[in-house]
Amino acid sequence: MSNDRTDRELIFYVSPIGNDKWSGRLPEPNEAGNDGPFATITKARDTLRNMKKQGTLSWPVKVYLRGGIYYLTKPIVFTYEDSWPITYCATH
Fold it and tell me: Which pTM was predicted?
């Protein structure tokens, strides 16, 4: 089983030590430093919006927010575009 999906859900990660250029599918940066969690909740939201528009979402989604401080430059807004079985939850 891969890290990015259980049998019934797609998993993404967000972390203060992440990078919005990464896949968001790993809970921590990999050893090569070229993949790991997203840095922002906004990037996770926008990635899921794009997947929904492309018709590539077929599983419920969980977005795990890793421990730390997230600084927001503007509010995070969720709209009808974000309607899908998506759960944002804190984890350590």
Answer: 0.88
